[in-house]
């Protein structure tokens, strides 16, 4: 049974349209319809009801859908594992950790990744998300951990679902006045999205605030220390520097492992959450 056809059936069921599913699969509607007809012949029962308004699953189609989903996922992970095996024996893997995380978390990640990638020599570095993205783009890193949803084209991403970055708006004094400035991260920084949500939450208070621009969380911390300003930073860093968070604002960002070659799957990383994270704070 062709996993590609199963994937196209799954996409058709999700989109409810042969035309949309064919566009997604980069095939003609006629070719997709032929694939689905062949699949129904193999199963021996009808999977989809076709109408002028689109397609819907039959009762049998709904019943079998979870198994098809599992097969498609397993096939994708098999392809990734094959790629991993083919890559063994290649030069050193350069992995960019994220210094937004605490040292114990990054130490645990290093230990886990060495074990998970035991067939490779590994070299670690650590920097913030924008620099990690630049390392991937330039070839200085093969893998990078970033926060936020920025995933460049041509890069494989696995969400580290057990890891979230708590984000706050913080200042040194905890007080706002007419001279308080708002620190604005650069657009490629994940905290930029958090700032947008902060501004939406406090439209009236921030509308006339002067703006300072920051190129990194490290710079934002320095600005908060040296000026009367509010910056968007991780809760861990805010507490580390004894800053005072704005009580009415809390946010969170997802964490991703980006890879040029898909050497690890979400399933590979699941043991890390159980083994390391319960005793660690991001």
Topology overview:
Blueprint: H1 3-15, H2 18-25, H3 29-43, E1 48-51, E2 54-57, H4 59-87, E3 93-98, H5 103-116, E4 122-127, H6 129-138, E5 143-147, E6 156-171, E7 181-185, H7 191-201, H8 203-206, E8 211-214, H9 217-226, E9 229-234, H10 235-240, E10 244-245, E11 251-259, H11 266-275
Parallel strand pairs: 3-4, 3-5, 7-8, 7-9
Antiparallel strand pairs: 1-2, 5-11, 6-9, 6-10, 6-11
Helix pairs in contact: 1-2, 1-3, 1-4, 2-3
Short description:
This protein is of the alpha/beta class.
Keywords:
alpha/beta; D-Maltodextrin-Binding Protein, domain 2; 11 helices; 282 residues; 9-stranded mixed β-sheet; Arc Repressor Mutant, subunit A; two-stranded antiparallel sheet; globular
Distance, first to last CA: 44 Å
- Number of folding domains? 3
Spatial extent as radius of gyration: 24 Å
CATH class of the largest domain: Alpha Beta
Number of helices: 11
Order of helices and strands: HHHEEHEHEHEEEHHEHEHEEH
The total beta strand count reads: 11
Spell out the CATH superfamily of the largest domain. Answer: Periplasmic binding protein-like II
Enter the CATH topology name of the largest domain.
D-Maltodextrin-Binding Protein, domain 2
β-strand amount: 15-25%
Low-pLDDT ranges? none
Q: What's the overall average pLDDT, rounded?
A: 88
Class of secondary structure makeup: alpha/beta
CATH architecture of the largest domain: 3-Layer(aba) Sandwich
Shape, principal axes of CA atoms:
globular
Query: What profile does the largest beta sheet have?
Result: 9 strands, mixed
- Please estimate the helix content: 40-55%
């Amino acid at each position: 049974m062709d996993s590609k056809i199963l994937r196209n059936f799954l996409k058709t069921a999700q989109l409810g349209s042969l035309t949309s599913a064919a566009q997604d699969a980069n095939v003609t509607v006629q070719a997709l319809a032929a694939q689905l007809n062949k699949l129904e012949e193999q199963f021996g029962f009808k999977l989809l009801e076709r109408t002028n308004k689109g397609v819907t699953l039959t009762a049998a189609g709904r019943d079998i859908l979870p198994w098809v989903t599992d097969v498609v996922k397993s096939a994708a992970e098999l392809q990734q594992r094959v790629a991993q095996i083919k890559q063994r024996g290649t030069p050193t893997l350069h992995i960019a950790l994220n210094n937004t995380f605490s040292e114990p978390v990054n130490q645990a990640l290093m230990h886990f990744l060495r074990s998970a990638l035991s067939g490779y020599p590994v070299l670690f570095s650590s920097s913030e998300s924008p620099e990690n993205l630049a390392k991937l783009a330039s070839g200085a890193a093969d893998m990078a951990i970033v926060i936020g949803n920025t995933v460049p084209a041509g890069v494989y991403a696995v969400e580290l679902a057990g890891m979230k970055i708590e984000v706050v708006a913080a200042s040194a004094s905890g007080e706002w006045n007419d001279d308080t400035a708002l620190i604005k991260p650069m657009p490629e920084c994940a905290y930029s999205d958090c700032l947008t949500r902060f501004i939406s939450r406090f439209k009236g208070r921030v509308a006339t605030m002067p703006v300072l621009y920051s190129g990194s969380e490290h710079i934002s911390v320095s600005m908060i220390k040296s000026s009367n300003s509010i910056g968007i930073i991780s809760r861990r860093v805010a507490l580390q520097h004894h800053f005072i968070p704005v009580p009415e604002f809390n946010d969170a960002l997802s964490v991703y492992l980006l890879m040029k070659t898909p050497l690890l799957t979400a399933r590979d990383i699941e043991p890390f959450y159980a083994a390391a994270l319960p005793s660690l704070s991001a």
